[in-house]
Design a protein that fits this description.
Chain lengths: 260, 238
């Protein structure tokens, strides 16, 4: 159990050599490799943190953009809705106006047609009435009636106002004193003379009276001197009446249309 | 049956005898250096490393962690010395399970050589960090009367260091051999397992004690340094 001095020194040297070898081959190399790896990891972590920060910033930007987009979309949608509403309102208004116009037009057309039909009906009725009256009077008329009418006519001539009388006298003078008396029936000599006398009495002594028979007059007498005419017969009376009736009918139709 | 491998002589020339101690020391050295060279030949700084490198890094980090726990400063300064001490002893002790292997730590010459290395390393590290005068002054503390006691403690702790390791490893080998003679079947297995445990523990104890001695020699200076920087208002790096 003694110490071998050579072995002791050799072991000490061995140990120191081992320390030197391991320091060269083991400790230094492993430590530098670990340090390099740690540095690499640290730099990678740093890079990752930086990239993460970048990514978060970008994400924040995108979120902000998204919010903006959503807001814009909301506004656009709102605007579009309002525009659509207004447009619809406008269209409805237009449609209503057009419908009202069409209705008015249709009602007017209807009213016109109704008025036309009414007018036509009235005219037909009037014509019927007048043709009936004309026929009735034609059947009633005869020479005796005409004689009576002649008397009335003589009275009318007598009752002519001064102005009218002058006009007729001037007209007679213009036609060289010729005066034509037209009747529907032949009056007979006596009546003709009597009328001639009355006319000469009131319209001048130089009047040359010529009697003509015109059946269309129905009943009555007409006095013609060139362009002037003094008449009292049923035909002209009926014509006057008819004109008056139609004038009234037209007037009432116009009033009716104006009311609607 | 030999108590120490020093007695197994392979070749002798005068006082220079190549004993089993030296041969098996070279075997252990070759094993450590060879495996280190094999692994560190192709080191990787990437995140994926080879299994060998991983094992080396784990061992290295373990040793660094232990040193840092004791000295509480940068462990890399003591790493080559303390680490090699531990690795040499632990590999020598663990290889006991290999039949025919004679642990070099079972030789008093080896353990004394290692203890002497520690004996030299303690003042070397102390002087390196404190300076020669201040280191020598530490032998006069707390008073000059303590000088012989301090010197004696240096010597005795070196002897105790060497004897402790030698005694443990020698007894382990001896017990295994004796057990083999008495009950050759199962008992030696248990004793060998116990010997492995003791071997690892002794390697740890030897290294830690060496570290504590070195640290105690350097600490006074480190504490003063830390105090000075704190007074200047700068943060302590200790």
């Amino acid at each position: 159990m003694a110490v071998d001095w050579f072995t002791l020194v050799a072991q000490a040297v061995n140990f120191l050599v081992l320390v030197w070898l391991l320091k060269r081959l083991f400790y230094d190399r492993i430590i530098s490799a670990m340090d390099a790896r740690e540095a690499g990891i640290a730099s990678r972590l740093e890079e990752a943190a930086r990239e993460r920060a970048d990514a978060e910033r970008e994400a924040e930007e995108f979120r902000a953009k998204n919010r903006e987009f959503a807001q814009q979309r909301e506004q656009m949608l709102e605007r579009a809705t309002e525009e659509a509403k207004a447009h619809r309102q406008e269209l409805l208004e237009n449609a209503r106006v057009q419908a009202g116009n069409a209705q008015t037009q249709w009602l007017e057309t209807l009213e016109r047609e109704r008025q036309g039909l009414l007018q036509d009906f009235r005219e037909r009725v009037s014509r019927g009435v007048f043709s009936l009256a004309s026929q009735g009077l034609r059947e009633l008329a005869d020479a005796d009636l005409e004689i009576q009418m002649m008397k009335v006519f003589a009275k009318r001539v007598e009752a002519l106002d001064q102005e009218r009388r002058e006009t007729i006298i001037t007209a007679i003078a213009d036609s060289d004193g010729k005066l034509e008396v037209r009747t529907a029936f032949d009056l007979g000599k006596q009546v003709q003379d009597e009328l001639t006398r009355t006319l000469r009495e009131h319209l001048g002594e130089n009047v040359r009276v010529r009697f003509t028979t015109v059946p269309e007059l129905i009943c009555g007498i007409e006095l013609r001197a060139r362009s002037h005419r003094l008449a009292w017969n049923l035909e002209s009376w009926l014509e006057g009446l008819e004109a008056q009736v139609f004038e009234t009918l037209d007037e009432s139709a116009w009033n009716h249309a104006a009311e609607h | 049956m030999s108590i120490t491998p020093d007695t197994i002589i392979y070749w002798q020339f005068g006082p220079f005898a190549i004993s089993a101690t030296l041969v098996f020391t070279w075997v252990v050295m070759a094993l450590l250096v060879g495996s280190s060279w094999l692994v560190t030949r192709k080191l990787s700084s990437a995140t994926s490393v080879s299994r060998g490198q991983l094992l080396m890094e784990i061992v290295l980090q373990g040793i660094r962690g232990q040193i840092r726990e004791v000295v509480e400063i940068d462990p890399d300064r003591y790493l080559p010395f303390i680490g090699t001490l531990f690795l040499f002893i632990v590999v020598s002790n663990v290889l006991v399970v290999v039949p025919g292997f004679q642990p070099p730590t079972g030789s008093l010459s080896t353990t004394t050589a290692l203890a002497l290395c520690v004996l030299v390393a303690v003042p070397a590290f102390g002087i390196a960090s404190n300076g020669l005068l201040r280191y020598l002054k530490s032998y006069l503390e707390p008073t000059a009367i303590m000088l012989p006691l301090n010197i004696m403690s240096e010597i005795t702790r070196t002897i105790s260091l060497s004897i402790r390791l030698f005694g443990n490893m020698m007894s382990g080998t001896m017990i295994a051999a004796m057990a083999l003679a008495i009950a050759p079947l199962f008992f030696p297995v248990i004793m060998n397992a116990l010997g492995l445990l003791i071997g690892v523990i002794q390697a740890y104890i030897f290294s830690i004690l060496a570290l504590v001695y070195i640290a105690s020699a350097t600490r006074a200076h480190e504490e003063k340094l830390a105090g000075a920087t704190n007074k200047k208002g700068e943060p302590s790096h200790v």
